[in-house]
Description:
Elements: E1 5-8, H1 16-22, H2 28-33, H3 58-70, E2 75-82, E3 88-89, H4 92-99, E4 105-110, E5 115-117, E6 122-125, H5 132-141
Parallel strand pairs: 1-2, 2-4
Antiparallel strand pairs: 2-3, 5-6
Amino acid sequence: xxxxxxxxxxxxxxxxxxxxxxxxxxxxxxxxxxxxxxxxxxxxxxxxxxxxxxxxxxxxxxxxxxxxxxxxxxxxxxxxxxxxxxxxxxxxxxxxxxxxxxxxxxxxxxxxxxxxxxxxxxxxxxxxxxxxxxxxxxxxxxxx
Length: 144
């Protein structure tokens, strides 16, 4: 049986780091709200049914999962950030999945890259590759 798995990007909640780097209240919604059209043919899509949601609330995730089921999406692949030595960012959605009994199938993908402010050439968060013990800690963290 074929299954449709959708990427689940966790960038839609505030973090102290993003507030420091990009300004108070920053989420990826900030970029969408400030998007510029580069041609008359381009359409900047705005959120519809769920609005400019905040993933720091488990309630919105449950609504998303129910909506996904209504549209035959089988589960989600959650984009996950682990920078080494237990450093995590944008981890609210994964914490909700681990702490709550959410009725959704999911897997995780490790977004293993450093974060840069490319316009200023500044390293924001370094990705460290620390070896087997750190990878085991990451794996253990993701267990329900």
